[in-house]
Amino acid sequence: AADKINLIPQDFFAELCEQIIQHLNHKIPGVNTAELCQRIQTSGIEINVGDLAKIANIVSFLFSTAARNNLSTEELVTTLGNAVSTLPKHAVQVIRHVWNEQGKSISVSEDARNMATVGQFVDIKWKLGVAMSSDTCRSLKYPYVTVTLKVADPSGQITDKSFEMTIPQFKNFFRQFKEMAAVLETV
């Protein structure tokens, strides 16, 4: 991963670290590595979203472990120096700066440590479409609903999950949401 970190310009790596700290502080649901990767690629750097996600996981693990052990900035940098001799100098500088500025704000409660996370809902988008025809059927005129859920997995990576439903499936889906809303009203 160190060779991939070396590819990332310092400003993008700093932004990644900032987002990870915000995620660990529960200020944002996750790190949007796909969007950040696209911006890095637009600047001319060859990196794929999988590699960026691995780097985000490593840095997230680093920050959460440092928070759990109440490491000072110097202890963290010393530990990094001992453990990872191949880490680029600019990356160590960014980690030092971000941890110095915001590291102490990460609260790691006992409950949060023991809680199994399942991910977090971020956003939903939907659209109604009609399939007019296909290569096997000339006249479909078949309506469907496409739903895209944006979800932050437990590590903080934001992913899109898409699925299509027929109108009867969508009506059932909608009915279940109305039932959930009614139950939530009683809480």
TrEMBL record:
PANTHER family given for it? COMM DOMAIN-CONTAINING PROTEIN 4-8 FAMILY MEMBER, COMM DOMAIN-CONTAINING PROTEIN 6
> Which GO molecular-function terms appear in the entry?
NF-kappaB binding
Q: Which residues cross the membrane?
A: none
Function statement: Scaffold protein in the commander complex that is essential for endosomal recycling of transmembrane cargos; the commander complex is composed of the CCC subcomplex and the retriever subcomplex. May modulate activity of cullin-RING E3 ubiquitin ligase (CRL) complexes. Down-regulates activation of NF-kappa-B. Inhibits TNF-induced NFKB1 activation.
Q: Which residues form the COMM domain?
A: 120-187
Protein known as? COMM domain-containing protein 6
One Pfam assignment: COMM_domain
User: InterPro entries this protein is in?
Assistant: COMM, COMMD4/6/7/8
**Origin: domain of life:** Eukaryota
Q: Which family does it belong to?
A: Belongs to the COMM domain-containing protein 6 family.
Native organism is Ciccaba nigrolineata
